[in-house]
Amino acid sequence: MPGPDTKQRILDAAQTLFAERGFPATSLREITKLADVNLAAVNYHFGSKDGLLKELVNECIEPINKERIRQLDAAEAEAGGQPLVLRDLVRIFIEPAVREMCEENGSMPCVLSRLHHEPHAGLEEMMADILGPTISRFIAATHRCLPHRTPEELMIRGHFMVGAMLHLLDFNCEELMPVPGVNKEVISDYDFRLEQLVSFCTAGFDG
Amino acid sequence: MPGPDTKQRILDAAQTLFAERGFPATSLREITKLADVNLAAVNYHFGSKDGLLKELVNECIEPINKERIRQLDAAEAEAGGQPLVLRDLVRIFIEPAVREMCEENGSMPCVLSRLHHEPHAGLEEMMADILGPTISRFIAATHRCLPHRTPEELMIRGHFMVGAMLHLLDFNCEELMPVPGVNKEVISDYDFRLEQLVSFCTAGFDG
DNA sequence: GTCTATACTCCGATAGAC
DNA sequence: GTCTATCGGAGTATAGAC
Are B196 and A162 a contacting pair at CB < 8 A? Predict the structure, then answer.
C-alpha cells in the first residue's frame, strides 16, 4: 500500500473519534480501521497513543497562541504606551480560541477542553511551554488596565476566564438540558456565545 | 479476610487513586491492591469500573445539591417575595460546592471537575437528574434579580459560572505556572479563592 | 450474601519479516 | 514504510468456596 498521507489520515481519524467518544474510550484499532491504515502505523509515526494526541493538540493550539500574540502586539503598538481597554484585552485572549476551534476545527474543542482537566504524560509541559509566555504578557497588560487589583487577583481571575472558555467550547458536543423559556438556537449561535463570554469575563475582571 | 467494610475500602482507595492519576489511568487491580480486597469485589459491589465511579460521584454531589436547595429555600423565605441580592444567589450556588469539596473531601474536586468534561456512560444522565431542578430554580431566581436579561443570557452565563468553578476546583491538584509577582500562598488560600470566584461571577452576570 | 480464583476478550506496544 | 505475530496488562464475567 503506497499512501504517503498515512500520517495525516491517522490524525484526521483520531480527531473525529476523540471528539465523538473521548480519548480514553477510543482504541487505536478503531482509529486505524477508520483511517484504513495498519495498526502498527500509529506507533511508527507517533511513537504511542499519547504521542498521537500530543501532535494533534500541538497542531491546534499553536496557531491560536500565535494569533493572540499578533493581536496583542498590534494593540499595544497602536495604544502607544497607554493601557489597553479591558474589553479589547479579554477579546484578544478569547476570540482566537473560540473562532479557530468553532470554525476551522469543528471537532477539536471537546478534545482540548477535556485535556485541560485530565492529566496526560508530557502534555501539561507542552501546554505550559506554549502558553506560559502569553499568559505572563496578558497578566501584565491586565495589570496596566486595572492597577488597583493585586497580581494574585488578576491571576486567579484569568484562571476563571480560562475555565469559562473551556466549558463553553465543550458545550458544542453536549446536549443541553432543556429549560423552559430558553431558545436553543440562540444559545447555539457562535457570535452570541462569543459576545456573552467577552462581556462576562470583562465584567468579572473588574467586579 | 472478614471485612464487612469491603465496599467502603474500595470507595476510599478509588477516590485516592482517581484524584492522583485520573480515572482512565487507574486500574482496578491497583485499587483492589490498595484496598486489600479481591479484584472481583469491585464488580460484585459496583457492577463495573464505571459503576464504581458513579457511586463515588453520587456520594459527593448529592449533599452539595441538597445544601444549595436548603440555602435557597431559606433565602427566598426570608426575602418574602422580593428578588434576592445577586451576590447572595451566586454564593449559594458556589459556596456549598467549594466548601464540601475543599474541606470534607480533599481529593474529590479533581475527579469531579474532570468528569464534567469527559463523557462516561450513564453519568451525564445522573448529573442531569440530580442537578436539573436546582439549575432551573437558579435561573428563575437570577431572572428576578436581573429582569432586563434574557433567559438565554442568564443560562449561558450560568454555564460560564460552572466552568469557572470547576476549573478552580481542579486547580488544587495542579502545579501553578510560576509568574513573577504572584504569591502562591495567597492564591492557594481557600477563602481567597471563594471570595474571588463569587466576585467574578456576580459581576459577570450583571456585566 | 460475600468473597475468591480463574478465564476470557480486548487493549497498546513491539520485534522482526517483507 | 508497512505488515504480521505476539506480548503483558487491562476490564469483565462466572463458577464455586465460605
Answer: no
